[in-house]
Write a structure and sequence with these properties.
- With about 575 residues, the protein is α/β, with parallel strands linked by helices.
- It has 15 helices and 31 strands.
- Helix 2 links the parallel strand 9 and strand 10.
- Helix 3 runs parallel beside helix 5 and helix 7 packs parallel to helix 8.
- The N and C termini lie far apart (about 75 Å).
- The relative contact order is 0.14.
- About 0% of the residues have low confidence.
Length: about 575
């Protein structure tokens, strides 16, 4: 082997993820591997040099839990924008697009991911549909399907086991799914908000050993002390959680994850680099944050070739300007090759590079979306009746069961002018339309419609009038799927739209274009009155029937805790 190195990064300071120290060193690379870490100026021949004076050299960031579809981007475009922010490795759970189009969709995502410089690894979605029997998705995966898909190249995990109530209750389907994953020594990713006590023990006993959801502080500590890898996304990062974890005799393994970030957020604020800054602001020391971005998630994913700047490790490196706490990527290298500079990709991926999406049916198969489609009929006599309602908040995606009195005349609920209405319509050519009032928002005249609606991605519409809801829904159908916000008493103005014709959840357009559309939709939602830390998630999780407490699907309102349908009226 030649003594010559391919690259020398000189003048910088390496940050050790093992000790938290910063030390002056030159990093040398041969091929895609770090070949040496030497005191500055140590003789060593290299074909190229990078001047890192004034910069910190850290490992590439590893995201151990996320969904590419949440960015509304293809895997190529996602890689282009996130690599430039330092995210060199991801474990992606494609449960959005797989709920739409099944195995074919996952194969397409894997193939598309291979075209990128980013290491994209995959988890097989565990809940397709998310709640069997209480919603209709575009596909279904059995335990046998999952057993086969776990053997596909690049697949290393069972995606988040969201139906945790089924696991705790001993449901045969979820038992079989976790069992086949454990038999193949796959990583089992979890989702169990505030699960505690004996039920948490039952969940852990299946082999599921991580959680990325928002928990009460005492539950975070309980899960951590039982050996659950705690994955902290933005909504989990607050001063109380940080102080409680840092006060422990020994800090448990922590991963910082993105879970769901839209394209405009990534372009404007960042990806894992943004989560890192949020963690620092919450009170975590910068060296703890760095380890939670690199070494710990790499170990979680069994990637022992990365996560530390050390000879023999993969040359996925991020050069940071300024103090470590700023987490400000100036240059990103993947396998020793420059992939991003100053937050921008060095070699942008265009939509033309995407493989043809032949197997994926992107239709939104519904009747014409006119005002008649938004009449809410019930089998009740004339008079005022008490209806179940969903109450939302501005902080997270929890929904509470509430009640509202509405008049009924001729079998029709007269809700206009009295409440905001939610409707979910099956979009896969099947019957199914369910209505419910929504509380917790002061909205102007208008509506939003979306086929990006976790996890079955049926046609979700929310509005203040039938006409506005019809306009929003018809706009989305015409776009082949996506999100549209309309304003005015009859929805006369389309304030923003984001076409998502790839399965109704993705766009094939360049990331910058999608980011502009997503930002416009976000602004239109906020201007309408839909105020939330993450408006996209707040809207799209109204249909997530495994997330507490009252949700809506194309088949019914669902009591999530009891895992059963409930009627529209409070007496049902």
């Amino acid at each position: 082997m030649s003594d010559q190195h391919d690259l020398r990064i000189r003048g910088g300071r390496v940050v050790s993820t093992f000790t938290g120290e910063e030390f002056a060193a030159d990093v040398l690379v041969r091929g895609d591997v770090i070949s040496a870490v030497l005191p500055p100026g140590t003789p060593a021949d290299a074909r190229e040099e990078i001047d890192a004076t004034g910069m910190l050299i850290v490992p590439g960031f590893v995201d151990a839990h996320m969904h590419i579809e949440s960015a509304f981007l293809t895997p190529q475009e996602f890689a282009a924008v996130t690599l430039a922010r330092g995210t060199t490795t991801v474990l992606a759970d494609p449960h959005e697009i797989v709920n739409v189009a099944g195995r074919d969709a996952m194969r397409w995502m894997i193939d598309a991911g291979r075209e990128t410089a980013q290491t994209q690894l995959w988890g097989v979605p565990s809940c397709v549909p998310a709640l069997e029997g209480l919603e209709e998705a575009g596909a279904a995966l059995s335990a046998d399907d999952i057993a086969e898909m776990l053997r596909w190249p690049g697949v290393i995990a069972l995606g988040e086991v969201m139906d945790y109530r089924a696991v705790v209750s001993g449901d045969r389907r979820m038992h079989d799914i976790t069992a086949v994953a454990r038999a193949q020594d796959a990583i089992l990713d979890g989702h169990c908000p505030n699960l505690t006590g004996a039920e948490l023990s039952t969940y852990l006993a299946t082999g599921v050993d991580s959680d990325h959801t928002k928990n009460r502080t005492e539950v975070v500590l309980e899960k951590a002390r039982l050996g659950m890898t705690m994955m902290l996304q933005e909504k989990c990062l607050n001063e109380e959680v940080a102080a409680a974890l840092l006060a422990l005799p020994q800090l448990p393994p922590l991963c910082l994850v993105t879970d769901d970030l839209a394209a405009d957020h990534i372009v404007d604020k960042g990806h894992l680099d943004h989560i890192a800054r949020v963690a620092v602001a919450a009170g975590f020391p910068p060296h703890v944050v760095l380890k939670a971005l690199t070494w710990t998630p790499a170990q979680r994913l069994r990637l022992h070739d990365r996560g530390v700047v050390s000879p023999g490790k993969r040359a996925d490196l991020v050069l940071l300007r300024g103090e470590l706490a700023a987490f400000d990527p100036a240059l990103v290298l993947v396998g020793g090759q420059v992939a991003g500079r100053d937050g921008a990709p060095v070699r942008p991926v265009t939509a033309d590079d995407a493989p043809a999406l032949v197997p994926l049916d992107s239709r939104v198969d519904v009747e014409p979306q006119d005002a008649e489609a938004f009449r809410w009929y019930v089998d009740l006599p004339d008079g005022v009746h008490t209806f179940r309602a969903m109450r939302v908040n501005q902080r997270d995606t929890y929904t509470e069961a509430a009640e509202i009195e509405l008049p009924v005349q001729g079998g029709e609920v007269r809700w206009e002018g009295r409440a905001t209405l939610v409707r979910v319509r099956n979009r896969y050519g099947r019957p199914g339309a369910v209505f419910a009032p929504l509380l917790g928002r002061e909205l102007a005249d208008g509506a939003v419609a979306s086929t990006y609606a976790h996890d079955s991605h049926n046609l979700l519409t929310i509005g203040t009038s039938r006409s506005a809801m019809a306009t929003a829904a018809a706009t989305v159908v015409a776009d082949g799927g996506g999100v549209a916000v309309v304003r005015g008493p009859v929805g006369e103005t389309v304030a923003a739209r984001m076409p998502l014709p790839v399965g109704g959840v993705l766009s094939a357009r360049p990331a910058r274009d999608v980011a502009e559309q997503a930002a416009a939709v976000r602004a239109a939602l906020e201007d309408w009155g839909w105020l939330h830390l993450n408006p996209f998630m707040s809207v799209s999780t109204l249909t997530l029937a495994v997330s507490p407490a009252l949700k809506i699907t194309d088949k019914s309102l669902v009591d999530v805790v009891r895992r059963e349908p409930v009627g529209a009226t409070a007496t049902d």
